[in-house]
Amino acid sequence: MKFRILTLLCCLSFSFAALAQASGGQIRRNKQNTTVKNRQSKPRKQSEPQVITSLPQIETDNAANLKKYNIQIAAFLEIRNVQSMRDDLRNQGYDARVYYDAPKRLYRVILAGFNDLQSAKNYKSQYLDGSDKFRSSYIFYIQDGETFFIQ
């Protein structure tokens, strides 16, 4: 049954593509899901590409400034997400920090840091494990530039 449905969908897709190619690519779907002909469009004016000369900056901690064991609550590729979360946490009274993990190209949002593993585990189990907000928190440490997670 699934194979028949997939075969039918493929045939319909191929038929529509062939119809569009035969009509010179002038067939498209409108919002009401009906087929209409494209209007003749004027060529768009080419704009100059914008060159980004500087990237947004954010204060990050290097591994030497972190405690041995840190609790990460989020990791992002984009700096604007990091800034937003860090600022929200600081407004709620947390001393949130950001660590840039260069090998993985990730910004890690750190909620707390500890010198010993047991203190980090106690804090995580007491304050974070039952919280929906921090349910994806991890304890990590950095050794020789590598980030290692503890569960």
Fraction of residues in helix: 25-40%
Query: Architecture of the largest domain, CATH level 2?
Result: 2-Layer Sandwich
Separation, N- and C-terminal Cα atoms: 44 Å
Principal-axis shape equals globular
Determine the number of helices (DSSP H or I, runs of at least 4 residues). Answer: 3
Summarize the structure.
With 151 residues, the chain is of the alpha+beta class.
What are the defining features of this structure?
151 residues, Alpha-Beta Plaits, 2 domains, 7 strands, five-stranded antiparallel beta sheet, 3 helices, alpha+beta, single chain, two-stranded antiparallel sheet
Give a verbal description of the structure.
The protein is of the alpha+beta class and 151 residues long. The protein has two domains: 2-37, no CATH class; 63-150, 2-Layer Sandwich (Alpha-Beta Plaits). The protein is 30% helix and 26% strand. It has helices spanning 2-22, 79-91, 117-128; strands at residues 27-29, 35-37, 69-76, 97-101, 106-114, 138-143, 146-150. The protein has a five-stranded antiparallel beta sheet. Strands 1-2 form a two-stranded antiparallel sheet. The model is unreliable at 6-17 and 49-55 (pLDDT under 50).
Write the layout of secondary structure elements.
Blueprint lengths: L1 H21 L4 E3 L5 E3 L31 E8 L2 H13 L5 E5 L4 E9 L2 H12 L9 E6 L2 E5 L1
Antiparallel strand pairs: 1-2, 3-5, 3-6, 4-5, 6-7
